[in-house]
Amino acid sequence: MFTLLICLLGQDPAFIAKDAIQPSLAADADGGFVCVFIRNGNIELSTSTDGGATWSTPVKAIDAGGKARGGMQRGPRVGVDRRKNILVTAPVCFDEKEMGMKYPIAELWVARSTDGGRTFSAPVRVNEKPKTAPESLHGMAVPASGEAHVAWLDIRDRQKGQD
After folding, report:
1. Contact 83/142 with Cβ under 8 angstroms?
2. Pick the residue with more confidence: 160 or 23?
3. Cα–chain-centroid distance for residue 26?
4. Three-state secondary structure along the chain?
5. Lowest mean pLDDT among 31-40, 76-85, 151-160
6. Pairing of strands 138-141, 124-125
7. How far is CA 161 from CA 68, 81, 123, 158, in A?
8. pLDDT-derived band of residue 125, with 50, 70 and 90 as boundaries?
9. Rounded to whole angstroms, how far apart are CA atoms 100 and 121?
10. Are 32 and 26 in contact (CB under 8 A)?
11. Which of 95-104, 109-118, 123-132, 147-156 has the highest mean pLDDT?
């Protein structure tokens, strides 16, 4: 298992979360940081308002019922807009039947916090056509205006899946 430590600009490492995997980090305009990661099968988030010296207790950004998985480039992403709204994307499978498969297909989900990461909206599916993002490879950018720009590997028009 892993312990997530963040070391910024030569500081001593700051403890964030035990057993966390696949972290992604974003900075706000005032020098604060947001870190999203998978832990205990959920998408969790921790924030720092002091340049990374200390971090908040992790909260669930997307409750995946303990079933979120990592692997390769399939981790969550995070972004912060000028009003410090936090957006999180992650590949998660909520379909119980699909979870019974050897390789369940996750969908891409986005959740938003308007209170600095204390609470999050219910997740909304990003890939509008189900089961078209089976690799869950994606990236996200959040400009100051607050829109989430998400790009992902999609198979909707492929006859044989991904080549």
Report:
1. no
2. 23
3. 11
4. CCEEEECCCCCCCEEEEECEEEEEEEECCCCCEEEEEEECCEEEEEEECCCCCCCCCCEEEECCCCCCCCCCCCCCEEEECCCCCEEEEEEECCCHHHHCCCCCCCEEEEEEECCCCCCCCCCEECCCCCCCCCCCCEEEECCCCCCCEEEECCCCCCCCCCC
5. 151-160
6. unpaired
7. 23, 35, 26, 5
8. very high
9. 27
10. no
11. 109-118
pLDDT at 1: 44
Q: Are 68 and 41 in contact (CB under 8 A)?
A: yes
Residues in the chain: 163
Task: Locate 16 and state its tokens.
Answer: 């964030």
| Position 62, amino acid | I
